[in-house]
Structures are given as C-alpha cells and as structure tokens.
C-alpha cells in the first residue's frame, strides 16, 4: 500500500487498530467471533429444546429416557473436544509467528463476540 495513502487512512480513521494487523490475526479474529456467536445460538436453541422436552414430560405427553439423554450430552461433549483439538492442530500448522498472531486474534474474537 502506498505510504501516503496509509498515512491519510490513519489520520482520518485513527480508531481502527486492525489496519495494522496481519492476516493471521484477522483470520483468528473472525474465526473466534463466528465461533462465539454460533455457540451462543447453539446454546439458545439447545436450551430451548431441553426446556420443551421437560415441559412435554411434565404434561405427560412424552417419556424421557434419562440414560439416552445423558449419553447424547456425553457424545456432544466429545464432539466439542474433537473440534477444539482440530482448531489447535490447524493453528499449529501456521508456524510460530502466524500461529501466535492467529491465537491472539482468536481470543480477541472470542472477547468481542
């Protein structure tokens, strides 16, 4: 980018610190933000489904298999752990500098989301 253009952008948009960040940080930032927002939506709908199941059971419209419910939650937890390991593996492939920047961006995205 031209130095004059960079200077003009920085003078007119001083509150945009991500203009000086690397691509690894920006990728990590966007991934962290999307994951947190997606997780919030998933938790909302999951909680809504569990509440609906308990209401239907209380009304004696359905019968819940508690062992099956426990097994389903356990499988979901295992899938989440595999996803976390997948993210760690992908970030470790970026190298030391890119990985560090991506991890910092990821946690910043989690904080923002």
TrEMBL record:
Membrane-traversing stretches: 15-35, 42-62, 91-110
- List where in the cell it is found: Membrane
Q: Which GO terms describe its cellular component?
A: membrane
- Coarsely, its chief localization is membrane
The superkingdom listed in its UniProt entry is: Bacteria
Alphabetically list the UniProt keywords: Membrane, Transmembrane, Transmembrane helix
Any keyword Transmembrane helix?
Answer: yes
The similarity comment for this entry is: Belongs to the FUN14 family.
Q: What is the name attached to this protein's record?
A: FUN14 family protein
State the organism named in the record. Nitratifractor salsuginis (strain DSM 16511 / JCM 12458 / E9I37-1)
């Amino acid at each position: 980018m031209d130095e004059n253009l960079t200077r003009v952008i920085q003078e007119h948009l001083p509150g945009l610190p991500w203009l000086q960040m690397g691509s690894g940080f920006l990728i990590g930032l966007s991934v962290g933000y999307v994951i947190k927002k997606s997780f919030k939506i998933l938790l909302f709908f999951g909680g809504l489904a569990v509440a609906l199941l308990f209401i239907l059971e209380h009304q004696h419209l359905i019968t819940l298999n508690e062992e099956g419910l426990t097994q389903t939650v356990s499988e979901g937890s295992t899938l989440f752990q595999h996803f976390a390991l997948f993210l760690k593996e992908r970030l470790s492939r970026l190298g030391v500098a890119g990985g560090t920047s991506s991890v910092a961006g990821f946690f910043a995205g989690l904080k923002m989301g």
